[in-house]
From TrEMBL:
The keyword S-adenosyl-L-methionine applies. The keyword Ubl conjugation does not apply. S-adenosyl-L-methionine-dependent protein-lysine N-methyltransferase that monomethylates 60S ribosomal protein L42. One of its GO terms (cellular component) is nucleus. PANTHER family: N-LYSINE METHYLTRANSFERASE SETD6, UNCHARACTERIZED PUTATIVE METHYLTRANSFERASE. Belongs to the class V-like SAM-binding methyltransferase superfamily. Histone-lysine methyltransferase family. SETD6 subfamily. It is an enzyme of class 2 (transferase). InterPro entries: N-lys_methylase_SETD6, Rubisco_LSMT_subst-bd, Rubisco_LSMT_subst-bd_sf, SET_dom, SET_dom_sf, SETD3_SETD6_MTase, SETD6_SET. Residues 25-294 form the SET domain. It is found in: Nucleus. This is Ribosomal lysine N-methyltransferase 4.
Length: 499
């Protein structure tokens, strides 16, 4: 079973040195909730079976495209096209402009030309994501700055490579975003091997070259996190890739596989000269062949891939068990300032020290509803008396993450402030989903994302409020049990009562 639209591509793949077990794997359209176009098992397949292999020279990256060489490696670097994703995007636009003259022509034909990701949403739809971490991570402005500053001038400098008549069709800002989104939703972080030169066509069909050495995981898809996690990644991310020995690469066939939380049944492994998709469990005939995108939370799935995972959750609700919500450190600071009546500047020294010591500036709450130790430690740091703060600084150690009443009080306020950042309540979102008739797909996915975040916030908040109540009850009991007169003298509450 296969799709007619993929036949030319599959022939190209096999004729170019790729192998695929076509008795075991086919392609078909699943429901959109299951990923649309994807791969299916045509028979029962045992664990540890290789379904297809991709020679490294068939992967498309700025190492395998011949554009940097034609452009001149030196000038490529001078124009910083080796940093960030702009160089790879330019390679992909250029390869795409060559159509079937490109080595990857039939492969490029299989790639989507439109995306449902928030990068392409209207302002109105983006407002539905208010409060979530999606919007600030889109990186649209950074991407467009790269396009205007680096890519346009590179294109204009070489009319022989980028004929002026082709620019509006193949090198527009819109095409730049499409290529960026192809990379974001389909690329793999492929670790380099010692023999890094796998660009040449002379390597085609060299079965003897294939290593039987130890297979290792290939990091699947871009997995940057935190505020630098832009669709077009910050240059420093690419520098890290350089250091880590990773090539962000498009990998034919492998990128036809969908993924769903906890469903992985195959994984991409690499060997010296090729990548191998190998089953990680037995797959029954008719089942979808699922890769993994690292079981991302819905806010990241939506931003990178344009879909969300909706599965049954413990307690009856539906959502993504991998959901997370981010709390910025400045919200903790603002909770402290409003509670203590001080301004943020008076805590600046402590915050600077916290960051210098490597403390987090974003805390991540998960569906275990635990409070990250770092948020408790930062909160305690803010609450320390001047003497205690001097001591902590002297020792070079942030305070222990103990959840006592003052700390609980402040984290509760920070969570309440975080909840207030959304423009709708959790109840409203639940009602919106009950009557979803006529709702746009973008809005539907946005509500799923923000509801997932809010559930974590509300459940964690409830837990903390219970903990605080228990803490207070404990301290009240201790006060009550204290004898009227001890060797230390009357308790504070007794003193007060006598006045
Ligand atoms: C690597 S591609 C997978 C192949 C893709 N379905 C195709 O037709 O080429 C990733 C894209 O597939 C879709 N996808 C993958 N898994 C999905 C899922 N569980 N639910 C919905 N869409 C999914 C999303 O559009 C995502 O951006």
């Amino acid at each position: 079973m296969s799709l007619p639209e993929l036949e030319q591509f599959l022939s190209w793949f096999q004729n170019s040195g790729g192998t695929i077990d076509r008795d075991a794997i086919g392609f078909k359209y699943f429901s959109s909730a299951e990923g649309g176009r994807g791969a299916v098992a045509l028979k029962n397949i045992e664990k540890d079976q290789t379904l297809f292999t991709i020679p490294r020279y068939l992967t498309l990256s700025s190492k395998t495209s011949t554009l940097p060489e034609k452009f001149g490696h030196k000038i490529w670097k001078e124009r910083a096209l080796d940093k960030g994703w702009s160089g790879l995007i330019l390679c992909m636009m250029w390869e795409d402009a060559q159509a079937l003259n490109s080595k990857w022509g039939p492969y490029l034909e299989t790639l989507p030309t439109a995306f449902d990701t928030p990068m392409f949403w209207s302002e109105k739809d983006l407002q539905e994501l208010e409060g979530t971490s999606v919007v600030e991570k889109l990186g649209k402005e950074d991407a467009e700055r790269d396009y205007h500053d680096k890519v346009v001038s590179a294109i204009q400098s070489r009319p022989d490579l980028f004929p002026p008549g082709t620019i509006t069709i193949h090198y527009s800002l819109e095409r730049y975003h499409v290529m960026g989104s192809r990379i974001l939703s389909r690329s793999f972080d492929v670790e380099r091997t010692n023999t890094d030169d796998y660009t040449g066509d002379e390597e085609m069909n060299t079965d003897a070259d294939r290593s039987t050495g130890n297979a290792m995981d290939v990091d699947v898809h871009d997995e940057q996190a935190g505020k630098e996690d832009n669709s077009i990644r910050a240059p420093e991310d690419e520098e890290e890739d350089e250091e880590d020995g990773i090539d962000v690469s498009m990998v034919p066939i492998a990128d036809l596989l969908n993924a769903r939380f906890g469903s992985e049944n195959v994984k991409l492994f690499y060997e010296e000269n090729e990548l191998k998709m190998i089953t990680t469990k037995r797959i029954s005939a008719g089942e979808q062949i699922w890769n993994t995108y690292d079981d991302l939370p819905n806010n990241e799935l939506l931003r990178k891939y344009g879909h969300v995972d909706i599965l049954p959750l413990p307690g009856g609700a539906k959502g993504n068990p991998a959901d997370v919500v981010e709390i910025r450190a400045d919200l903790v600071l603002s909770a402290f300032s409003s509670q203590s009546g001080t301004d943020a500047a008076s805590s600046a020294e402590r915050i600077d020290w916290w960051l210098e010591e490597g403390g987090d500036d974003i805390f991540v709450l998960e569906t275990d509803y635990e409070v990250p130790e770092a948020i408790a430690s930062l909160t305690r740091l803010l609450c320390l008396s001047s003497d205690e703060w001097e001591k902590a600084r002297g020792k070079g150690k942030p305070p222990k993450p103990k959840l006592d009443s003052p700390v609980l009080d402040l984290i509760i306020i920070a969570l309440q402030k975080r909840i207030a950042q959304y423009s709708s309540t959790m109840k409203e979102d639940e009602q919106i989903l009950e009557t979803k008739e006529g709702m746009s797909f973008n809005k539907y996915q946005a509500v799923i994302v923000r509801l997932g975040e809010k559930r974590i916030l509300h459940t964690t908040l409830q837990r903390l409020q219970n903990l605080l109540a228990a803490e207070k009850a404990k301290s009240d009991n201790t006060q009550k049990r204290k004898p009227v007169s001890t060797f230390e003298g009357p308790s504070k509450s007794m003193k007060k009562a006598r006045r």
